[in-house]
Amino acid sequence: MRTVYLNGQFLPENEAKISIFDRSFLFADGVYEVTSVLEGKLIDFKGHMTRLQRSLSELNYEFKPDIDQLLEAHRELIKLNNITEGLIYLQVSRGSAGDRDFAIKKDTQPTIVMFTQEKSLIKSPLAERGQKIITFPDIRWRRSDIKTVQLLYASLLKTEAAAKGADDAWMLLDGFVTEGSSNNAYIVTEDGTIVTRELSNDILHGITRASVLKCAEELQLKIEERHFTLEEAQNAKEAFSTSASGFVCPVAEIDGKKIGEGVPGPIAKRLREIYIKANLDTAI
Ligand code: PMP
């Protein structure tokens, strides 16, 4: 049984309980981060905590997390659960005001939850064969830059994609790709330029995205941060996605159309290797 974290305590997972009035349960009033663990160490912890602070501040939380304490708690959970490779989920909700009320009350205590998921990340059959993607309209609220637990649409899309024999969903807004159900989306053009949608309220500002673009820059690859259409994606040389759990994951097919040769492309494969190596070096 896992040991999980709840408001400063480490508990067996079946003993961690929160109020039915918690605003994350009633209103999806909570934000989260997922940090990957390789060789027992945290990948890009600082980046994830900076985004956590931004998500909280965009939603007017009064609560300011103590990042040193959260780092200690992450490390303790890794130790208690003996994790060498996997993920740590951290959720901060606005907590319970003791009743259901749309209007947000001042001075509620946040609920802080953390748990581990043991998972093989570096060795990935999906990354080796390349993902099959299906596209869907992006009908999410227009603050997709805030990492809230309001994940029902993404969850429905992933389920529908799987039911149709695909691995994941990419979303389209006005004909342009925004991002994947739980990852950022990229294509590589004929001349080897990496294209990904620019940062705005329409996509999550991926921590892996920032790191991978830095790796690409160091390799002197050309990068364009701009909108791209489904058609451009389907005719691209390569496509891939990035996320903390999937790293760089090549795409083999979009809406039934093979991308390039229909196998992982050289740029995506190279970026995956370099991203993993660079982040192992700086893991804490
Ligand atoms: N977009 C969405 C919608 C996501 O859910 C995620 C993963 N949480 C990402 C992008 C990738 O972000 P990161 O690289 O920080 O995991």
Question: What does the model show?
Answer:
The protein is α+β, with helices and mostly antiparallel strands and about 280 residues long. The protein is about 30% helix and about 30% strand. The protein has 8 helices and 15 strands. The chain has helices at about 25, 45-60, 65-80, 125-130, 150-165, 205-220, 230-235, 265-280, and strands at about 5, 10, 30-40, 40, 85-95, 110-120, 130-135, 170-175, 175-180, 185-190, 195, 225, 240-245, 245-255, 255-260. The strands form 2 sheets. Strands 7, 8, 9, 10, 11, 12, 13, 14 and 15 form a 9-stranded mixed sheet that branches. A 6-stranded antiparallel sheet has the order 2-1-6-5-3-4. It is globular, with a radius of gyration of 19 Å. The structure holds 4'-deoxy-4'-aminopyridoxal-5'-phosphate. 4'-deoxy-4'-aminopyridoxal-5'-phosphate (PMP) binds near residues 204, 207, 242 and 244.
The count of β-strands is 15
- Chain oligomer state: single chain
In CATH, what is the homologous superfamily of the largest domain? Answer: D-amino Acid Aminotransferase, subunit A, domain 2
Order of helices and strands: EEHEEHHEEHEHEEEEHEHEEEH
| Beta-strand percent range | 25-35%
Structural class: alpha+beta
Which runs of at least 5 residues are low in confidence (pLDDT < 50)?
A: none
The shape, in one word, is: globular
Q: Helical stretch count?
A: 8
Q: What ligands does this structure carry?
A: 4'-deoxy-4'-aminopyridoxal-5'-phosphate
Q: What top-tier CATH class of the largest domain fits best?
A: Alpha Beta
Number of domains: 2
At the fold tier of CATH, the topology name of the largest domain is D-amino Acid Aminotransferase, Chain A, domain 2
What portion of residues is helical?
Answer: 25-40%
Average pLDDT figure: 98
For the sheet with most strands, the description reads: 9 strands, mixed
Which CATH architecture of the largest domain would you pick?
Alpha-Beta Barrel
